Amino acid sequence: MPIIDIHIHLSDIDSFHQTAKDLSKVDYSAAGLKAEFDKNDVILGIGMGVTEQSKGAFPDSSSPNPMPLDLEETVPPFLMECVGINPNMLGGKQASEELDRIEARLQAPEVAGIKLYAGYYHHYVYDKIYTPIYELAAKYDVPVVIHTGDTYSMNGLLKYSHPLTVDELALQQRGVNFMICHLGDPWVMDAAEVVAKNPNVYADLSGLVVGDRPHFERFMNEPLFMDHFRRALVYSDHYEKMLFGTDWPLAPIDLYAEFVRRLVPEQHHEKVFYENAFGLFPRIKDRIAAL
């Protein structure tokens, strides 16, 4: 079965390098990612753009918009990109230039959507500072992907990344599709309700386990851990709006795929691992056709 991994990273972020080296034991490079894709029949990935201006600075308030995949010079042909947004640069004199650069990048065929780092940046997703971003998303018919739940940085603030904040946003912006990352973990039941209630809200299952095989074996063999997510999936009962993602390099793709296969009932695997991505990311079809 072909797989589309809708949540990976390929940016020069210090914490990603350290996680790849010390925890997940993956080759954090485009070549390393391609090798894992080939091994696991992943035909396309979507990378979440993010940058830091100095080592260890993420979430970096000085990063210019849009934040790209900057580990390599160009986006590899087997990837698409969600352009990352630094809201701290949208409120000053430079806002117009920032928005112009974002809009120009959204016109590139390899761009699949927009990524907001809620929690990392201290703004609620329904804050007016993001309104021009949602207008661009509607104009170019691309989804907005939103980090929710725990932050991979002690400098994040969880009140901004709670999935319930997406409920208010979804009502305000019915013309835009949104994806809740990480199923809002640890608030997975809240995220499940937001997905079930709002026709324009989806969720991905990325980043729920970080590490190598011993980490995965430990958690996959813990019923309480697995049931934490299964309960939310059963409650939401919208497998057509759940998408597979790994959050690579936080975990090897083969282990993460095994984990999600155990979470999701087998009759929904083709939807979650492949078909649902086409419904949320309209540009995927053309990108795959060009491969």
UniProtKB/TrEMBL annotation:
Coiled coil: none annotated. Residues 96-282 form the Amidohydrolase-related domain. GO terms for molecular function: carboxy-lyase activity; hydrolase activity. The keyword Repeat does not apply. InterPro entries: ACMSD, Amidohydro-rel, Metal_Hydrolase. The keyword Hydrolase applies. It comes from the Bacteria. Keywords: Hydrolase, Lyase. This is Amidohydrolase family protein.
